[in-house]
TrEMBL record, chain B:
<dbReference type="GO" id="GO:0016740">
    <property type="term" value="F:transferase activity"/>
</dbReference>
<keyword id="KW-0598">Phosphotransferase system</keyword>
<protein>
    <submittedName>
        <fullName>Phosphotransferase system, phosphocarrier protein HPr</fullName>
    </submittedName>
</protein>
<dbReference type="InterPro" id="IPR050399">
    <property type="entry name" value="HPr"/>
</dbReference>
<dbReference type="InterPro" id="IPR000032">
    <property type="entry name" value="HPr-like"/>
</dbReference>
<dbReference type="Pfam" id="PF00381">
    <property type="entry name" value="PTS-HPr"/>
</dbReference>
<feature type="domain" description="HPr">
    <location>
        <begin position="1"/>
        <end position="88"/>
    </location>
</feature>
<keyword id="KW-0963">Cytoplasm</keyword>
<dbReference type="GO" id="GO:0005737">
    <property type="term" value="C:cytoplasm"/>
</dbReference>
<keyword id="KW-0808">Transferase</keyword>
<dbReference type="InterPro" id="IPR035895">
    <property type="entry name" value="HPr-like_sf"/>
</dbReference>
<dbReference type="GO" id="GO:0009401">
    <property type="term" value="P:phosphoenolpyruvate-dependent sugar phosphotransferase system"/>
</dbReference>
<dbReference type="InterPro" id="IPR001020">
    <property type="entry name" value="PTS_HPr_His_P_site"/>
</dbReference>
Amino acid sequence: MKIDNKNITRKEKITVEYFFKYAKDNFKLKSFTGKIGLNRYITEQNLHRPGLALAGFVGLFSYPRIQVFGNTEISYLKNLTEKQRKSSLKKLMDFEIPCIILTNGVKPFKDMSELAKKRNIAIFGSNLSTTKLIYYLSDFLEDQFAYRFTVHGSLVDVYGVGMLFVGKSGIGKSEVALDLVERGHRLVADDVVILTKKGEGIIMGSGTDLTAHFMEIRGIGIIDVRSMFGVRAIRFQKRVEVVIDLEIWDSKTEYTRTGLDSSTVSLMDIDIPYVKLPIIPGKNITVVSEVIALNYLLKHYDYDAAKVLTERLKKKLETKNSLNDRIIDYFEHDFE
Amino acid sequence: MIEKKVKIINNAGLHTRPAATIVKIASKYKSEFFIFKDGMNINGKSIIGVMTLAAAKGSELKLTFDGEDEKEMAEEILDYFNRGFDEL
């Protein structure tokens, strides 16, 4: 199975304006400088505390990062004379820094805002403590600069398990997704799924803003799952937990029979459980998919049917009683 | 594998009707057909996919054709792009 990993992309930059729009709503960031400096770019996901740079050492200054002024920086600046402070801040703002954030509800010094306005650098403020703000902002920026790529497939939440259906076009991915929705499961996206790497080990999937929850069913055309089945039939995002590869039954391919040797597929260097599902007449892919989801849940809750049966067989072999008995020894006048 | 770059030249861009035609042409062939734009690699046999591109006039797309009949497929699809989806 090939899932093309070659078109992985990530955002190279976001504008300070875009950053502020989200940070204003989500982290209650406020601006001290109005529209100044909103056209600058943020190119790095990490944040930086410029203590050393303010003290004069700019040797390894990570200036492309957002500069966070916490208690340390502010009290250092407070201890300087006005002249010293000006020259210290000037040195810092001579670099192409994206913006400055003050934490703990601190307001900028008058000379600081004046200088920032001259240099076209935005100063934002937050009532949160430095540690908390850095924690929130890091998560936001990590998501913004995360690796992502699109796959051709359908993503459905089946009993809470994110199942990504892939396979050649025309094999029936959309039909399986529609069938699952009809049975009460929830569609995330069809045909175009954007996968985003979140942290080390999580792949999140979602649709695009234009076509999420729209679907093409051959012979009918385009349908809108959200308006047809209602809000219970959709969701915006889901972690991808199992990849199902649909293919026409091929007598030369070996399909797993016991489920003991589970295979995985690599999505942006993260291994995701992978099931190759052959399509044959009379096979209900939807029901099989539900069973795969339930089996995944059982395994997650520490019950692996294949292992349990293996264990039972082992015990039976150890007793050397190879006679295969009925599960009920004696039908004691119970003929039901 | 054949790789070609094309530009959208009609005024209305790659809207529903040309998207459907592209998918129709592509589906006649066995080869795989992908369209790349803005970091998105879209299966050219999927109408939702092609519409997702939202390719306006002037956008540049990279097309890849891969398979036994890739040559004929590329020829017919490129011709359709170059005709401006018959809307010039």
